[in-house]
Amino acid sequence: MHICKLVSLFCLFSTLTTFSQLLPQSLFQLSFLDEEYENIKYSKHALKELRIQHVEGMLSNLKKQFPVSFQFEEIGRSIENRSIYLVRLGKGTTKILLWSQMHGNEPTATAALFDVFHYLMKNKDKPFVKNILNKITILAVPMLNPDGADKFKRRNAQGLDINRDARDRQSPEGQILFQLQQTYRPDFGFNLHDQNARRTAGKTNKLVAIALMAPPYDSNDNDNPVRLRAKKIVSVIYEALGPYLYGHISKYDAEYMPRAFGDSMQYWGLSTILIESGGWYSERDAFLQKMNFIALVTVFDAIANESYTNANPAIYDILPENDRNLYDILIQDVMVFSGTGIPPFRTDVAINYNSEKIGMIADLGDLNIFAAKDTINGDDLYLTPGFVGVLNDFSFEEKELISELRKMLKSGMTTILVSFKNDQIDKISEFEKIIDNNQFSVNVGGILYLDYELKSSSDTLQVLRYLGKNMIGVIGKDSSITKFTLARILKKPAVALADANLAAHLESLNFQKIKSLTSEQAELWKIPKRGKIQIGQIADLVLFSKDSQSKPVVNTIFIKGYPVSRGGEWINVPVKGENWFTN
Questions:
Q1: What is the rounded CA–CA span in Å between residue 577 and residue 445?
Q2: Which pLDDT does position 143 carry in this prediction?
Q3: Domain-by-domain residue ranges, the chain?
Q4: Which contiguous run of DSSP H or E holds residue 108?
Q5: What is the pLDDT of residues 357-401, one digit of tens each?
Q6: How confident is the model at residue 483 (pLDDT cuts 50, 70, 90)?
Q7: What is the torsional sign of CA 243, 245, 251, 254?
């Protein structure tokens, strides 16, 4: 680190006592943006579903609303011949270039840009917005990689990472971005991305919501006037978002990469800022879309009125860096019955939600150096895969059926297979409707209850037709009927009624029985990615505690990694169990 940086940091720490005092309070805080946001939010598409056709629709609608002041044009085509657009707002001499979604699976800022466009157009007569549009020209590419966005993948249709194509420029998207820099010679650049949603800020174990970077322009991490301006803009963003994200803003961790566009733009003379949207504890997408909106409008204001020149660039140097990953749920020091037949063992179990918001077992072992959004102390608790229960002789009366299902779930059955006799097959849709009406958080599927011998080809054809209604298996009184006649033909689980009678086992449950039942359940029904506590399995799990007689008592039930019942009380969660009738 250079002497000037050391002196700057020394002076900073000798005069200020806390990180929150690094800038005069409210210098860059436009609190009214938060208050006005819901009324101007423009992009309401689910982020993962955002495609170029949605971008085109929003561009066209904004043009109709603001035919004079809102300008956009097609500036090129992707490999798969999708349009790439440039939005132009304002008429100032200071030019700002923004580009979003150069990685197709990073859409947060794309949605936020449309919120920004709408806000500036709708409020163009407000003094501070009028000043923005008079002093700066905004040049924005809302979706640079429409081919990647179409498949929700990072790379373009060539398989290239556009953000590693600044030198070779072999992608049409990279060529377009380079040509924009050459044509307009912007003063500032904003490289808008999403990052790993589980990174922590330094050693704090706090989730990173926004990571910022003023990319280096050389391998020695030197500063020059161009980069110092970028660092000042980072300081503006830090204060703008501080009231919402204090402790959750980090410095993006990356070495100098001359092939990356951010580093190259800095070298070419644009004061370039990387904004990476990370994770949040709830409603991540909507919340970080709003944070991007607030950050960008605040920055535009600070550049237009030149107040950013008062920001302290040393703030950038002491931002905590992106650090280790944060798990969604961490169950610590719990006795695990893995469902594999091996003896139970004590360990930590981590759960992460994937892009489909399904909780998966992410790791097992000594994980005490890691943190999580939600940590559960597993002392005196026992973790098992959820059991698979079979519901026989049920009522189609809604209240009775739901009561029975809840009773089974509370006993540790996270998957319930409903056995339908021949004359009940036509009532499957009625059963499904009851489940859907009650938003029931349990996995349900159908099995065919076969109580007669297959004596003819017509019998076999009838069974095949029933199984075609998405039955996942067969149950019968006599194992010879199912296991030897059907299993080899249909390649579906076929189980004798006596083997499937889990309820009888649970009535006198002990921990030795839990060990055998979990391993038996994993093999019996072969339900995909369930029934074992192993990395990559879906987290349908049960936590047991002990009663005064050292007998197992269900403590917490997880469906897809979400606790749906704790201590016998139901918890509202944003998840439904699998429905194998329709899937």
A1: 10
A2: 98
A3: 3-320, 388-532
A4: helix 108-122
A5: 899 999 999 998 888 999 999 999 999 999 888 888 777 788 888
A6: very low
A7: negative
Mean pLDDT computed over every residue of the chain: 87
> Beta strands 552-559 and 541-546: pairing type?
antiparallel
pLDDT at 29: 87
* Tokens found for residue 126: 């407000």
| Pairing status of strand 271-277 against strand 188-194 | parallel
**Under 8 Å CB-to-CB from 549, ≥6 apart: which residues?**
none
In three-state form (DSSP H/G/I as H, E/B as E, the rest C), the secondary structure along 62-96 is HHHHCCCCCEEEEEEECCCCCEEEEEEECCCCEEE
Single-letter amino acid code for the residue at 321: E
What distance in Å separates the CA atoms of residue 125 and residue 33, rounded to the nearest whole number? 16
Taking the C-alpha atoms of residue 423 and residue 400, their distance in angstroms, rounded to an integer, is 20
Give the CA distances from residue 360 to residues 272, 356, 543, 554, 562, in Å, rounded to whole numbers and listed in that order: 37, 10, 16, 21, 10
Summarised one tens digit per residue, pLDDT across range 313-351 is: 999 999 999 988 899 999 999 999 998 888 899 999 999
Torsion of CA 501, 502, 508, 510, to 10 degrees: 140
Using the predicted structure, report yes or no on whether residue 9 has a pLDDT greater than 90.
no
The contacts found for 8-13 with CB under 8 angstroms, 24 or more apart, are: 8/313, 8/314, 8/317, 9/314, 9/317, 9/318, 12/312, 12/314, 12/318
302-325 burial code (b ≥16 CB/10 A, e <16): bbbeeebeebbbbbbbebbbbbeb
Cα dist from 561 to 281, 370, 422, 511, 577, whole Å: 15, 18, 35, 23, 11
Q: From the CB of residue 436, how many other CB atoms can be counted at a distance below 10 Å?
A: 12
- Two tokens, residue 31: 């609190």
Does the domain spanning 3-320 belong to CATH 3.40.630.10?
A: yes
